[in-house]
């Protein structure tokens, strides 16, 4: 276990009156945000930060977090999801990435779960934490808008990369590989990034709206969730655009449900997730293990249909949510099958660093619980406001390059429209609702 310079953090949580719009309590320039359907946690400041790299970045973070928790003094009478000592986290997709993988313990957290609102104050200097609900801050005048343009992976480059991926599949080197492309832009100086997050949360309320260390987006895919030792994970693989009207939408849903190509892609992803989790599943009673539904269901989002499967079970003894994150990442839904060959192909075929796109993003609590999503439908936004957005799709033997390019265009839409300032329009066109 690597030694960590872990200060003796002190955390105190109190219940407070209904907090209203949580985004009003986040930092305008460096928000820490984890929201779904208006509930979640937002934070500001930094009491402790760990950075991790390489192949062992996730297990190293899990070891570091254990050391931080062991040294901490925690007073949490609220005991709601996300209360007490919490670290926000975001991890690079690949071991070779130049992007930093981080755990960040903030100084102040404002949260809400159902009817319970709370505030956690955290200190690192030995002083007594003094939690109180801060004054909500109105959004700044400068909006977080930008126009994105294609980066290194142009449409022609994307087609050539898919052709090379299909060669690897047809020659037996791979069953599936996920290839991404990127778009780039920049925020205006002084932009209030909470405006961007508000549009994402409004348009996609059923997704996880996240912001950690500049990684920003709204993900439909739960990597893993542990609450009171109950584990749930959601696998998404297989995609179709929504129809223009109710009848066309029903046809699109039916086609996806019976598409051999998408069902095969989904099956690879579910089998990969279960195989990864089996390495941690040490239950003696098979009835308490981690299992998946046999048949995927269709998940409706404002602009897409997905094939989805849920995995459920009980957390094995001695295991934390970060151990599950390490076991699951990368899933076949964002990497491919077999995993080592798919990751090699991604490095060879994508002319850019994915950074933390398709990596784990979420939070971990002192008791080992937490919520983590796959960082999709979003972008890396650095301190200067430079934006790199990503979208990808799974390539299997029956893939068509033109169809795959159109799929990435659909997957770019949440972040593109939010940056353009019109993400709410999509929600209104779909009635403001999505279905899990």
TrEMBL record:
<dbReference type="InterPro" id="IPR005801">
    <property type="entry name" value="ADC_synthase"/>
</dbReference>
<dbReference type="InterPro" id="IPR015890">
    <property type="entry name" value="Chorismate_C"/>
</dbReference>
<dbReference type="InterPro" id="IPR004561">
    <property type="entry name" value="IsoChor_synthase"/>
</dbReference>
<comment type="similarity">
    <text>Belongs to the isochorismate synthase family.</text>
</comment>
<feature type="domain" description="Chorismate-utilising enzyme C-terminal">
    <location>
        <begin position="155"/>
        <end position="411"/>
    </location>
</feature>
<dbReference type="GO" id="GO:0008909">
    <property type="term" value="F:isochorismate synthase activity"/>
</dbReference>
<protein>
    <recommendedName>
        <fullName>isochorismate synthase</fullName>
        <ecNumber>5.4.4.2</ecNumber>
    </recommendedName>
</protein>
<dbReference type="Pfam" id="PF00425">
    <property type="entry name" value="Chorismate_bind"/>
</dbReference>
<keyword id="KW-0413">Isomerase</keyword>
């Amino acid at each position: 276990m690597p030694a960590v310079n872990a200060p003796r953090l002190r955390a105190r949580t109190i219940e407070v009156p209904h907090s209203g719009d949580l985004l009003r309590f986040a930092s305008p320039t460096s928000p820490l945000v984890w929201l779904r359907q208006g509930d979640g946690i937002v934070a500001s400041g930094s009491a402790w930060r760990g950075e991790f790299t390489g192949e062992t970045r996730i297990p190293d973070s899990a070891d570091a977090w254990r050391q931080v928790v062991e040294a901490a003094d925690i007073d949490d009478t609220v005991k709601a999801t996300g209360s007490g000592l919490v670290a926000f986290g975001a991890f690079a997709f690949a071991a070779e990435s130049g992007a930093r993988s981080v755990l960040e313990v903030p100084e102040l957290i404002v949260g809400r779960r159902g009817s319970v609102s709370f505030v956690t104050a955290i200190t690192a200097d030995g002083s007594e934490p003094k939690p109180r609900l801060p004054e909500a801050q109105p959004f700044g005048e400068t909006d977080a808008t930008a126009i994105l343009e294609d980066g290194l992976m142009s449409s022609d480059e994307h087609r050539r990369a898919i052709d090379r991926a299909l060669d690897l599949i047809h020659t037996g080197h791979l069953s599936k590989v996920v290839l991404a492309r990127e778009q780039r832009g920049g925020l205006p100086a002084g932009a209030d990034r909470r405006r961007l997050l508000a549009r994402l949360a409004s348009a996609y309320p059923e997704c996880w709206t996240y912001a950690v260390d500049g990684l920003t987006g709204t993900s439909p895919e739960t990597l893993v969730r542990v609450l009171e030792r109950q584990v749930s994970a959601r696998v998404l693989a297989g995609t179709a655009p929504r129809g223009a009207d109710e009848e066309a939408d029903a046809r699109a849903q039916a086609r996806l449900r019976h598409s051999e190509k998408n069902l095969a892609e989904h099956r690879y992803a579910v089998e990969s997730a279960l195989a990864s989790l089996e390495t941690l599943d040490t239950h003696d009673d098979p009835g308490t293990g981690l299992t998946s539904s046999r048949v995927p269901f269709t998940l409706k989002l404002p602009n897409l249909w997905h094939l989805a499967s849920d995995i459920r079970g009980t957390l094995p003894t001695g295991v934390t949510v970060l151990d599950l994150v390490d076991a699951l990442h990368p899933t076949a839904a964002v990497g491919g099958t077999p995993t080592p060959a798919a990751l090699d192909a991604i490095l060879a075929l994508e002319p850019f660093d994915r950074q933390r796109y398709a990596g784990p993003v979420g939070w971990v609590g002192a008791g080992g619980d937490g919520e983590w999503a796959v960082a999709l439908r979003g972008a890396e936004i650095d301190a200067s406001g430079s934006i790199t957005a990503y979208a990808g799709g799974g390539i299997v033997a029956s893939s068509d390059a033109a169809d795959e390019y159109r799929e990435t265009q659909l997957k770019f839409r949440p972040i593109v429209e939010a940056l353009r300032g019109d993400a709410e329009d999509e929600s209104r066109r779909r009635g403001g609702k999505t279905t899990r």
